[in-house]
Amino acid sequence: MDKFHSSLGIFHHALEGNVLKAIELTGQLAQDILENNNDLLFDLLSLHFVDLVCSKEWAEALEFAQTKLSPFSVKEQKYMEKIEGFMSLLAYENPVECPMFHLIGLDYRQQVVDSLNQTILGWLTSLYSVYLIYILLQISILCSIPAKYDLQSLSFCLFFSVDVGDGQHTLTFPSTLPWSGLYNRPQ
């Protein structure tokens, strides 16, 4: 449940304009969420760029675009096109006059935060699903133990590993299972 509550803080920071903090907290929650999702990371960084432009911190916005956004354009052409759209905001003293003004609107921010929300919830769902499978496996092992054994003194060690679906990470649950007092099996 702590991870779920942490995710609420992430969304709050992203919506309120503290996107760099949201990125930091997302990395603390699960480092690979943003490492494996360039589109989402780019969109979050672009929100910070928009915040700098709206605050009229043009020099800082330009430097941020050069250091944080432009490396994405090396990976794929679509990022170059997006960067050009964001950079056009700098050409106007009042960004609302820019043809790309929709990028500074709440709708764009909400779209990015919704994408972040879906990504984190998907990650949490897979994490809790794996944990539920782990618990069910423990219960099934316990139920398969013949009734002649005294469960009050029984304990055993279970190691359970599952690929979380991203092709790169495996969750491992080592556990010593003491069942004394936890389960009263009918005789």
TrEMBL record:
UniProt keyword annotations, A-Z: Membrane, Transmembrane, Transmembrane helix
Signal peptide per UniProt: none
InterPro entries associated with the record: CRA_dom (IPR013144), CTLH/CRA (IPR024964), CTLH_C (IPR006595), Ubq-SigPath_Reg (IPR050618)
Top-rank taxon: Eukaryota
Annotated ranges, domain CTLH: 3-60
Coiled coil regions in record: none
TM ranges: 120-145
Name of this protein: CTLH domain-containing protein
Organism this protein belongs to: Glycine max
